[in-house]
Amino acid sequence: MTTIFDPLTLGSLTLPNRIIMAPLTRGRADAGGIPGAMMAEYYALRADAGLIISEATAITPQGYGWLGAPGIWNDAQMEGWQIVTEAVHNKGGRIFMQLWHMGRISHPDFLGGELPVAPSAIAAIGQTNTPLGKKDYVIPRPLTLEEIKALPHIYAEAAQRAIDAGFDGVEIHAANGYLLDEFIRDGSNQRTDAYGGSIDNRLRLMLEVVSAVCTAIGSDKVGIRFSPMSGHNSMVDSDPVATFSHAAEQLNAFGIAYVHIIEPFAGHRMYREGERVTPHIRTMFTGIMIANGGYSKDLANDMISTNDMDAVSFGMMYIANPDLVTRLRHDHPLNAPNMETLYSGGRVGYI
């Protein structure tokens, strides 16, 4: 029986186990979005994961909107990440960078007073922490066709910088209500041009980004993350099964390393009532799939042993348990994370 402790071929890598460290925004980058020595120490402590997926990393100043988040749009940021990847590799680990454009979930306070961008002029509901305090989300500015057509190149440049910084690959962030997810789902995309309306049109930008990134660094070094049923950041789609099944089918043409799905299992506190989308994606996508959504060791093993999934990523468990692989392997008790220090900065609750 295959378990989370068995190796897995993922793109150009052979993972020693199927325990993946999920992306975890922690707000510990130095000024200018530059990773520092503390981040290198944090990731190196978790290097026995089958694969580490880095925290979301902004690909452009236009897509930045989180205090203390890192970037990958300039040389200083790339050099900071080189320290991180070297530390992980020195411990025998493997690490992908998650490429991030926040879209409408940014705020003018991060953007020199400019409006955040999105497919349509529809604001998310709620507030965000800006450099000037907590503020309501604003109505974003719809991207022009020329700006949309430039985005795949921006993603590809960021992917190449990630590889130059020593990453083993990249994960395209198309989940959680950020820019690519905003284009994919019809609750946030009400365009009437080639990038809105039909499912094919709403998937167009995501597929163009995947194509550009695969061309830049090789498809075996590219993953993508979706959250089909998540309502985070005011997201909704009228037919997530149809939308994301078609997305999965279209991705087969690229031969990417994996698809990473956030969808809590039935019974989990974050599970949303309705038809589960993950089984449909599993049917349509022929490559490696990673599940995420509050899984325990037993549930993860069940998913893998029945071939419902190839690997499982763990997020909250990794915050307070850097030695998670060892603890799970030997059934050692797990530390509970301190929620008050998730984004507080500094070493407390981080190292």
Written description of the protein model:
The chain is of the alpha/beta class and 351 residues long. It has ten helices and 14 strands. Strands 3-4-5-10-11-12-13-14 form an eight-stranded parallel barrel, surrounded by four helices. α7 (278-284) links the parallel β12 (258-262) and β13 (289-292). The longest helix is centred in the middle third of the chain and has 20 residues, at 145-164. It is globular, with a radius of gyration of 19 Å. 50% of the residues are buried. The model has no long low-confidence stretch (mean pLDDT 96).
Summarize the structure.
By secondary structure, the protein is an alpha/beta fold. The chain has 10 helices and 14 strands.
Distance between the termini: 35 Å
Give the neighbour order of strands across the main sheet: 3-4-5-10-11-12-13-14
Question: What's the story with the biggest beta sheet?
Answer: 8 strands, parallel, barrel
How many helical elements? 10
Shape: globular
Helix amount, in percent?
25-40%
Q: Beta-sheet strand percentage?
A: 15-25%
